[in-house]
UniProtKB/TrEMBL annotation:
This is Uncharacterized protein. The active site is at 168 (charge relay system), 241 (charge relay system), 578 (charge relay system). Belongs to the peptidase S8 family. Pfam families: fn3_6 (PF17766), Inhibitor_I9 (PF05922), Peptidase_S8 (PF00082). One of its GO terms (molecular function) is serine-type endopeptidase activity. One of its GO terms (cellular component) is extracellular region. It comes from the Eukaryota. Gene3D superfamilies: 2.60.40.2310, 3.50.30.30, Peptidase S8 propeptide/proteinase inhibitor I9, Peptidase S8/S53 domain. Residues 694-790 form the Subtilisin-like protease fibronectin type-III domain. It is found in: Secreted. Residues 160-618 form the Peptidase S8/S53 domain.
């Protein structure tokens, strides 16, 4: 049968080409456009939702032809604006035509501006370099009740058809975490591929690792230019980040996993039977936004259920929602029923540093678990002081070494402040060789790694860092003796040094201390809210373990990092919101495996409204400064996957809600229609304050005027529990902030599943600034907690 494009497809494609022909005639004819000596850079040309024909789920020849015609139309656009003598730039680098429409190419600033005015184009933005946000954890999350419920569920044969797409640095397929023993055939709906590479074969994929992609043309954006980076030519992970995240989300059970004796236990993902598809978009230089966008497009087409992205923009350079590749890709993934979970970033503890804040993204903060990695300092007076680090020191209690303050070991003409902070070149090797050096962390611009290298290069015996920065997040120093102490312990060390002429000390190798308290604690590095883009959506959403997480790693034979006589480890301990994100991904996959019909927003709501708010001392969560954590630090609380299986009520956030959010944010109706490929119209009244009415499982109000009447916030809940049930509202609010739920009782009957209600906020007597609290809806069995953040002007 001759192949042809169906009559239903052809009219759309013809219409698609018409606007291209409406470009100025001198552009169509290829007349050179003045470039003003501009250097071409990598740009993304985003054109909104994809046509239905190009995402035909059957993957038939007709859909393939439609995609080819789209690609040809993109090339035609380029040839119409790029001078003929620069024909090498008339190449589409990334072609987006599955979940959404557009392409990326090398353009000058002028050419990008011309395209941005095109009737079919939603936005044009420069490719941005995004950053990676980088065993016991699952047991800690579940607790005794969780393990009992979990055993029951696994015995009842949980679904093994959930597919997680990991967009990251690739995969190390030989890791035991990706063993497919006991897992059934690959789901027939999987349409992805396992790409061959220079050191990767299709046979490296299996029933567990169902797919692996890499991208030939990665573009590395830099300050004034973009350059096409040489392709890695393989889906294989050369960094370790992607492998680590994949195994946290869905790794198989691996008994007796350990990192050179530390954190020993059974390593596993949230749902060990989960399938994993790897999309390699990052290298040691970072992650191209345009490539991430392509990976999301591919993942949706391939058939993943959930996408996990432990990557984001530095908070100083956060883009608006239609210039952010992750936000754009996530929106269209959500349209297609694919949940997107992202890390919040590692720019804490400063406020307004949270990233990945679009309401259709599930944004994850990081917390600690109940395991401490302790490296003690033993002083010459036999006093032992606790520090934290990951080191495989050979030192012991039997011998101590001279102890010297870094500022007393300054090199010639070196400012004391620089030596005190162990700046490069600041120490006199003659004054530190063979000694244990005490450095300070007054200057955060000099990282722990740099300080350690400075001291080590000066032939010191070891290093003690007195610093509150990264408190509780252990630094890995390999075989070099290193430990970090807080200011309280540091003052005891300084007191000892001043009490004797010949102070000495030793640093003991790291041991893991179980049942550490308190836990969880919001990690020092975890990025904080409120969002810079919109304070009327509470971000981050939730928190999960992200400190010293044991997970799979490709074996690295790095001198100085491996204990003497040991082989490279198949596992590693890593910290970051990068590690927290796949914990939530694993939890979401677990819930999806039980409730196949639940949407992304239902799963998010279930996890948020059932989150834990107390630590293992039965007290409210704290941050790394020992203060009670607020929702801008840890979201609504710590994930509780098993409790989320039966939330009672859920807040369903629809595509219509997200489109209205964009209206309220200030985008034009024309752009929103192109983005959604619908006949959607913005509400007549659109302003940013209305974002607070988005049907989200938390509430945020950026401005509450105490001199105005009470502000009413709208919500609608969906009953997924017993047909006839009544929920009663309970409010927890700070003094002076009056919060009421209208009505106080929400009644569901057999024919009534969705019920609207309102929450009123009156700040007449409230303190200025952010006020935090919660509204809880409860019946005989369920407790549905909705956190709020209200900024009183």
């Amino acid at each position: 049968m001759a192949s042809s494009i169906s009559m239903t497809t052809t009219p759309f494609l013809l219409l698609l080409l018409v606007p291209f022909l409406s470009l100025p005639w001198h552009l169509i004819c290829g007349t050179p456009v003045p470039t003003n000596n501009q250097i071409p850079k990598h740009y993304v040309v985003y054109m909104g939702a994809a046509p239905v024909a190009s995402v035909n789920e059957n993957g038939d020849h007709e859909a393939h032809q439609a995609a080819e015609i789209l690609a040809a139309s993109y090339s035609q656009m380029l040839s119409s604006i790029i001078p003929r003598q620069e024909s090498d730039r008339m190449r589409v680098i990334h072609n987006y035509n599955h979940a959404f429409r557009g392409f990326s190419a090398m353009l000058t600033e002028h050419e990008a501006a011309v395209l941005s005015e095109h009737s079919e184009v939603v936005s044009v933005f420069g490719d941005k370099m995004l950053e990676l946000h980088t065993t016991r954890s699952w047991d800690f999350l579940q607790g005794k009740l969780g393990r009992l419920v979990g055993d029951r569920l696994f015995n009842n044969h949980l679904s093994t058809d959930i597919i997680i797409g990991i967009i990251d640095t690739g995969i190390w397929p030989e890791s035991p975490s990706f063993n497919d023993e006991g897992i059934g055939a690959v789901p027939s709906r999987w349409k992805g591929v396992c790409m061959d590479g220079k050191d990767f074969k299709k046979s490296n994929c299996n029933r567990k690792l169902v797919g692996a992609r890499y991208y030939e043309a990665s573009v590395t954006p830099r300050a004034n230019q973009s350059r096409l980076a040489k392709s890695s030519g393989t889906p294989r992970d050369s960094v370790g980040h992607g492998t680590h995240c994949a195994s946290i989300a869905g790794g198989a059970r691996v008994a007796n996993a350990t990192y050179f004796g530390l954190a020993r236990g059974t390593a596993r993902g949230g749902l060990p039977s989960t399938r994993i598809a790897s999309y390699k978009v990052c290298s040691t230089e970072g992650c191209s936004g345009a490539t991430i966008l392509k990976a999301i497009d591919d993942a949706v087409k391939d058939g993943v259920d959930i996408i996990s992205i432990s990557i984001g923009m530095n908070s100083l350079f956060e883009s608006d929602f239609l210039s952010d590749p992750i936000a754009i890709g996530a929106f269209h993934a959500e349209q297609k029923g694919v949940m997107v979970i992202c890390s919040a970033g590692n720019d804490g503890p400063d406020p307004s540093t949270v990233g990945n804040t679009a309401p259709w993204i599930f944004t994850v903060a990081a917390s600690s678990i109940d395991r401490d990695l302790q490296s003690s300092v033993v002083l010459g007076n036999a006093k032992t002081l606790k520090g934290f680090a990951i080191n495989f020191s050979k030192l012991s209690r039997s011998k101590t070494y001279p102890l010297v303050l870094a500022e007393d070991a300054a090199g010639n003409f070196t400012p004391v402040s620089e030596a005190r902070n162990c700046y490069p070149g600041s120490l006199d090797p003659k004054k530190v060789a063979g000694k244990i050096v005490v450095c300070f962390g007054d200057d955060p611009s000099v990282s722990r790694r740099v300080k350690k290298l400075v001291v080590e290069d000066a032939k010191a015996k070891g290093m003690i860092l007195i610093c509150e920065i990264q408190n509780g997040v252990p630094f890995e120093s390999g075989v070099f003796p290193f430990t970090q102490v807080n200011n309280i312990v540091g003052s005891q060390i300084l007191k000892y040094i001043n009490s004797t002429k010949n102070p000495t000390a030793t640093i003991l190798p790291t041991i893991d201390v179980p049942r550490h308290r308190p836990a969880p604690v919001v990690a020092y590095f975890s990025s904080r809210g409120p969002s810079q883009l919109s304070e009327n959506i509470l971000k981050p959403d939730i928190m999960a373990p992200g400190v010293s997480i044991l997970a799979a790693m490709m074996p690295k034979n790095e001198p100085g990092n491996i204990p003497f006589g040991k082989k490279p480890s198949d596992f590693a301990l890593r910290s970051g919101t990068s590690m927290a994100c796949p914990h939530v991904t694993g939890a979401a996959a677990f819930i999806k495996s039980v409730h196949r019909g639940w949407t992304s927003s239902m799963i998010r709501s279930a996890l948020m409204t059932t989150a834990s708010t107390f630590n293992n001392m039965r007290k409210p969560f704290t941050n790394s400064s020992d203060h009670i954590a607020n929702p801008h630090e840890g979201g609504v609380g710590e994930i509780n996957p098993f409790k989320a299986l039966d939330p009672g009520l859920v807040f369903e956030t629809t595509t219509k809600d997200y489109l209205e959010f964009l209206c309220y944010y200030g985008y034009s109706e024309k752009k929103i229609k192109a983005l959604s490929n619908t006949k959607f119209n913005c509400p007549k009244s659109s302003n940013e304050e209305l974002i607070s009415n988005t049907n989200y499982p938390s509430i945020s109000i950026s401005k509450l005027d105490p001199h105005q009447p009470a502000k009413l916030i709208k919500r609608t809940v969906t009953n997924i529990g017993a047909l006839n049930s009544t929920y009663t509202a309970k409010v927890q609010s700070p003094p002076g902030l009056s919060v009421k739920v209208i009505p106080e009782k929400i009644v569901f009957t057999k024919g009534l599943r969705r019920v609207p209600f309102q929450v009123s906020f009156n700040a007449e007597d409230a303190k200025k600034g952010y006020n935090f609290g919660s509204v809880t809806l409860f019946d005989q069995r369920h407790s549905v907690r909705v956190v709020f953040a209200v900024n009183v002007q």
